[in-house]
# Entry
Amino acid sequence: MRNLRKILIRLQNQAWVLTRADIDKPLLNATLAEDARYDEIPHIFSSIAEAYDFFESLIFRFYHELNEIANMNMGHTTSGAVNYLLTCYESLAKRWTEALDRFEQSRGQLLTHKEHIGLKILRIHQKYSQFVRLDHGRIGRTDPSSWDKYDSIFEDIVSQASSVLDMTGDSIHISSMSSTPSDKIIEGQLKPSFSVSMGIVAPLYDIATLCRDPSIRRRAMNVLRSASRQEGLLNSHVSAVAAEMVIGLEENLALGGGLNDLKDFTSVAALALESEQQLQQRHQQGHRSIRRSFEVPDAARLSLAYPSFDTVNRKAFLNIGDMKGTQVKIPLPAMTAMLDMER
# Structure
């Protein structure tokens, strides 16, 4: 029952990411009450499953306590309280990593194929949570370009995720793919996989949208595009389509110097709907292109970007927002077409 409750909470959290509706906010208190031993990390994990269980408990607890701090301060987090929380969890994350390292060393060549895959996925989330999210939380979110310092970590995570797909057989060679991920669903050329456990779609999508290095973020997008994975409510094809639009939008904005306001919906939508293929054609014709992260100015960087669905009217959108708090919805025609074909 405890594991089932965690699965349902994980799905609820994903639903909130896709809808941002209060009704879908995760209710963690029931699970947290059962996780009183979350900080009793053993010297060495006995299995991948135990390591996963402790990791998820740490993540649940961290975001719960962060929200508690915000609620006590009427939506604002004080730097002192947040830094203290980050220090505590950095210590716990270090202990967790050491316990996982000891497990891997003790198993050595006895690690099974499934354990190798599980270990790689855990390492992906370890790096993303410990070296990116916790560190970035200490820096603060007021500087959009602060993500650039993690490019080398992003690159390593993408390589690890690509390796996971190679090991599971959940991908095809990128060069053999059409430009639209949904085509492969129709043609049935990919083997679908489904999981409610920790996966690779979420970190890859975050990298494609937060990393501004054009090579790294496109590789993350292409790994998503080459996969056929449904991880809870997160779909690799949907994520690839949304990531492609975000990349095109930000780079077009960067080349134009950025926008003063996202409220100019017509201009934003036109830029966002320009495909990756059109971008490449323009670049080949001699137009200037983005080559480094720092070439994307803060004015061109989105503070949020996530796909959402109108299930009644069967339409898909990309919700984007800037640092000023302005948000707009841009249609995702590729995904809407896929929904129409499922009628």
User: Anything to note?
Assistant: The first strand starts at residue 193 and ends at 195.
